[in-house]
Design brief:
elongated, 3 domains, Dna Ligase, domain 1, single chain, mainly alpha, 330 residues
Length: 330
């Protein structure tokens, strides 16, 4: 009789524990009914965080959520930032993300050939980085000295790539990431090939930036490079429209005039001999390689076919005929 009573009492205690354990497990694993973007401010306490999660519809009972966090010892381990919780996210995965700091990252693609002003626009639109602050950073003399870069800005050294940044990232952090990416991409092979052509790093970057702006076709880059190398060897001016445009970029409205071509700026290669004063854009790897590996051709001129490709020629007579065919008649 006594043994039966013990079994009955044991069973009576065990059943509620099983029910409670099952309910607790169900709560932890139950999914969020909605997808929500939640921002946790720096210094926010757990109660504030839980209230924000409830307001966004991610968690229901904040007391249970706090009890769960306390059972894990994570009441004070929350990381600030912006979080994106998918519909169906469990309480465990939600708390795990906040404790680990798995903040939302924004995908930002900087196209090859973008200049510092265009990059500033992209970051301003995508990450709300102040354009003035970004341009101030890329023109900071201290930063230029730190990275041993000559010139007035970091133009040419902000590697065009796809990056991932969190909301609230600073302009200095973005610039640092782009500079480090350029440093990692710029190979010893480029340096060695450049020396054989009598080019230092800065000249290579300038060359590459001009090539980048002249054509978007991979197969044409070594040809464009050859034209400019050939012209420089002969003491000819580069006469590159993109360099001239860069010299007046902040007031350029899309139409290059005769007056623009006659204006003396450090970038107007219709007026000056040699390379422009600095890079005119941020080149990708293909243009950097083309700058130090020009095609073995004798071309001195090229003109657009108006289909993104170019026709090349060896002398002015051929060039004028091509200009008449592809530009003037059109």
């Amino acid at each position: 009789m006594k043994s039966k009573l013990v079994k009955f009492v044991s069973l009576g205690i065990a059943l509620p524990l099983v029910v409670l354990t099952s309910a607790w497990f169900f709560y932890i694993s139950s999914g969020s009914p909605v997808e929500a973007l939640v921002e946790i401010a720096p210094g926010a306490g757990f109660n504030k965080v839980a209230a924000t999660l409830k307001e966004k519809g991610v968690v229901g009972d904040t007391r249970l959520f706090k009890l769960y966090a306390a059972s894990r010892g994570d009441l004070n381990n929350l990381k600030p930032g912006e979080y994106l919780f998918k519909a169906g996210a469990s309480k465990k995965s939600i708390l795990d993300a906040i404790v680990r700091g798995e903040i939302r990252m924004y995908k930002i693609t900087i196209p090859e050939g973008s200049n510092i002003y265009q990059i500033a626009d992209i970051y301003s639109e995508e990450l709300k980085i102040d354009k003035t602050e970004f341009l101030k950073t890329v023109k900071d003399p201290g930063l230029l000295h730190e990275w041993n870069i000559e010139g007035q800005s970091l133009e040419g050294y902000l590697y065009p790539e796809t990056y991932y940044f969190s909301k609230g990232v600073k302009a200095s952090q973005v610039v640092d990431k782009m500079l480090k990416t350029f440093q990692a991409k710029y190979t010893d092979e480029i340096t060695v090939r450049g020396k054989k052509l009598g080019l230092d790093k800065r000249q290579i970057v300038i060359f590459a930036s001009v090539i980048e702006k002249e054509t978007g076709l991979a197969e044409e880059r070594p040809l464009i490079s050859a034209v400019f190398h050939n012209r420089l060897k002969r003491g000819m001016k580069l006469q590159s429209d993109p360099t001239t445009i860069y010299g007046i970029f902040e007031r350029y409205r899309g139409n290059l005039t005769k007056r623009d071509l006659l204006e003396e700026t450090p970038y107007n290669t219709y007026r000056i001999k040699g390379l422009p004063a600095g890079p005119i854009a941020n080149p990708g790897m293909a243009s950097l390689k083309a700058a130090v590996d020009p095609s073995n051709v004798t071309y001195l001129y090229f003109v657009s076919r108006n289909d993104k490709s170019h026709v090349f020629s060896n002398n002015l007579k051929e060039h004028n005929a091509n200009v008449n065919k592809y530009q003037l008649r059109r």
